[in-house]
Amino acid sequence: MTYNDKFHSDNLDQINTDLDKIEDAQNRLIDFLSKILLASNTVDQATNCECFRVLLGKIRINIESINAIIPLVRKDFKFKISINLLYRCIIDDIINALYLINFLDFNDPNQTSLSNELNILNKEFLLSIIDAFTEKSIYDESLNIITNDQKTIINNDIKNIINNNPNLINTNGKGKQNSDIRIGTNDIFLNRIKVIGSAGNFLSSNFKLKYIEKSSKEMETQYKQLKYLFNYYTQYQHFNPEASKLIQKNLDHDIYNYIATISEMLSVIEILIGFINIDDSEFLKGQFVGMCNYIEESFKEIEI
Description:
By secondary structure, the protein is an all-alpha fold. The protein is built from 13 helices and no strands. The model has no long low-confidence stretch (mean pLDDT 94).
């Protein structure tokens, strides 16, 4: 007897049926995204728009990982911890995609505004690498398990990161201010940032969401849904006694969130394929419409 048979037998059959539909929808998404990625792999992308292919690739991998865990969830609902963390990654990538899209400047062939935001993201990554190297060196030194030659290699690696990225990192290893990196960014985007208020020197998900909200009237509703989903899935990342109670519950509420997340995936995919150069794009866009219609009809049968 499985955990679910013992503690959640009341509506287990219905939840498994719902999971069938979610798994089927996500298999179709995996197949479609694989086609998009292959059809755009050898095609030159517009300046700085390769990032949108990368985001779709990440989303595809996480969807496939979720489907791999679903059989475990059918036996024990507590495995939704892993699934919900993967959905959080997907929502985070959707937020990143919509955030970056709203820095596209169609009057600028160099896409300076988008490039500046990508540089800020790169800066955050590089600073985290420097911190990791530094802390690892300190830790190893405290245990007396690092040689002078190894310390020299680590110090040289840090110096190379700093020297190779003078537009992002100061000579003292501190990151440059985002406002300095945004030199040349379109004033429309800069004014939008001013309305939101300073995000400090780190682009948090909350700041990105606020930027998305202010980008257009159409984005306001999407902002609310994305914020809700991101906050819900985040409860599975952080520990606290109240949130741990969610783990014990069945999947009724989670099913609703999974459907909402798939809806957000379809929405952002539709937007992104408009900015990615694809071989046989009209055929694939037609397949996308057919897939959306199929998933929509399938989900109508799920009671929420």
